Automatic annotation (TrEMBL):
This is Protein N-acetyltransferase, RimJ/RimL family. Residues 4-160 form the N-acetyltransferase domain. PROSITE patterns: GNAT. Gene3D superfamilies: 3.40.630.30. GO terms for molecular function: acyltransferase activity, transferring groups other than amino-acyl groups. It comes from the Bacteria. PANTHER family: ACETYLTRANSFERASE-RELATED (PTHR43328), N-ACETYLTRANSFERASE DOMAIN-CONTAINING PROTEIN (PTHR43328:SF1).
Length: 279
């Protein structure tokens, strides 16, 4: 898989974007570049962007939209939305979608240093797309039932988390059920922590989360937990729910709440938090 370059649209790209192809099915989920390009160019808050490969072919297109508010979602004002992201059908199947998703956080952060909130909306039927974004560290934060073609999902990424695209999870195959251990890997080789748990039918109870490197462990831990749902769907598809029993540490509670865990019992003294991961 070749490297990619993401950059702002230039007028000389117009001819290549006119030749950009998407199947009819893909056009249900995303627009052709030429359908949104001119509107974006007229709006000071929108920036059309292209993705090139090493052969200077335009393999992808998207629009960055500052201060956008998607209907039905209450998101902060100081945000950037990724809109109309697509990969040219003629060049699909070569891993470009994964490359783009992994590179987007750093690219957006470099363009908008003052904006820390990155969002995108994906149709719920388009599981291939939202699974890819989850692997890139985006967190599913809300579902809207009545989008244009049905359910749609809102995804969020905190651009202040510096390690989001460098953290990966790996199953420790030496662990024996019901116990499981998932290693947290930084930069593809450095083991910086682990998540341990116990399986009870369709439920995985997290018993221990550990990260090394104190000055950066907060970002690594939250990134690992954001990826955990997608990791389990791929490696342990029988798991439907994640639970964790909290202690009274406020920082730990905030960490799990940021990645989608909610208090399971309405009793204010309850310390059980839960997250559905198979939906």
């Amino acid at each position: 898989m070749t490297d990619i370059i993401i950059r702002d649209y230039q007028e000389e790209d117009r001819g290549n974007l006119k030749a950009f192809e998407l199947s009819e099915k893909q056009q249900v989920y995303s627009s052709l570049p030429m359908d949104v390009l001119d509107d974006a160019l007229k709006d000071p808050y929108r920036t059309p962007c292209v993705v090139q490969n090493e052969d200077q072919e335009i393999v992808g297109f998207f629009v960055l939209h500052k201060y956008y508010q998607h209907e039905g979602y209450d998101t902060p004002h100081e945000v950037v939305y990724i809109r109309s992201l697509s990969i040219n059908e003629k060049l699909q199947g070569r891993g470009y979608g994964t490359k783009v998703a992994m590179a987007l956080p750093q690219y957006v952060q470099g363009k908008y240093e003052a904006l820390d909130h990155l969002y995108l909306v994906v149709d719920a039927e388009n599981q291939a797309a939202w699974s890819l974004y989850e692997r890139a560290g985006f967190m599913h934060t809300a579902t809207k039932e009545d989008g244009p073609i049905g359910k749609e999902r809102l995804y969020y990424l905190d651009l202040d988390q510096k390690y989001v695209h460098n953290v990966k999870l790996k199953l420790d195959e030496s662990a024996v059920l019901p116990k499981v251990r998932i290693e947290i890997i930084l930069n593809k080789k450095e083991k910086v922590g682990y998540i341990e748990g116990e399986v009870d039918k369709e439920v995985l109870r997290i018993t221990h989360l550990y990260t090394e490197l104190e000055e950066r462990n907060r970002g690594i831990a939250s990134t690992a937990l954001r990826q955990f749902g997608t990791f389990l769907r791929r490696n342990m598809p029988e798991i439907r729910d994640l639970i964790v029993h909290m202690d009274d540490a406020a920082e730990k509670i905030r960490l799990f709440e940021r990645v989608g865990f909610v208090k399971f019992d309405e009793d204010e003294n309850s310390k059980l938090y839960k997250k559905y991961i198979n939906y």
